[in-house]
Design a protein that fits this description.
This protein has about 140 residues and is an alpha+beta fold. The chain has a domain of about 90 residues. Helix content is about 35%, strand content about 20%. Helix 1 links the parallel strand 2 and strand 3. It is globular. The termini are far apart.
Length: about 140
């Protein structure tokens, strides 16, 4: 499921289990791993049917979850929906802070980057990104 909640955008993979195993397909593991490595936020939420507990994992853990099931370290384990959503929010805020920190160190949002103040949430300058134009386009524009 795709969520946009309180300014956070993320995916949650929903699963149920009767024991400690969590069945994730190789495609689900690959998608969650790639999405996380590229800065995306995803979770795997498992309902343990015998206890009724909800167990929340980070999507980046999908390979570990596929191998170790519910024995993997979780962000949340319990029956309280509000407490689970609080953990999603806290994890999401931490994720956004991490992404912003990486952007600050990468040159994106720097005054000379061509992106204006994107890292600070400001609109860009409208200037073209260096190297983004097609080769020879400048010559065609000057001829016109």
């Amino acid at each position: 499921m795709h969520f946009a909640w309180l300014g956070l955008v993320f995916w949650i993979e929903l699963k149920t289990t009767k024991n400690n195993s969590v069945r994730l397909s190789p495609q689900q593991i690959a998608w969650n791993t790639a999405y996380s490595r590229n800065g995306g936020l995803s979770f795997i939420l498992v309902k343990h049917l015998p206890s009724g507990d909800l167990i929340l994992f980070e999507g980046a853990q999908s390979l570990e979850i596929g191998r170790n099931g519910l024995r993997s370290g979780s962000l949340f384990r319990g029956s309280g929906h509000q407490a689970m959503w609080n953990q999603v929010r806290e994890s999401g805020i931490g994720h956004l802070e991490s992404v912003l920190e990486q952007l600050r160190g990468s040159g994106v949002g720097d005054s000379g980057s061509g992106f204006g103040g994107l890292a600070q949430g400001q609109l860009g300058t409208g200037s073209p990104v260096p190297g983004s134009q097609q080769p020879g386009l400048e010559a065609k524009e000057k001829q016109a």
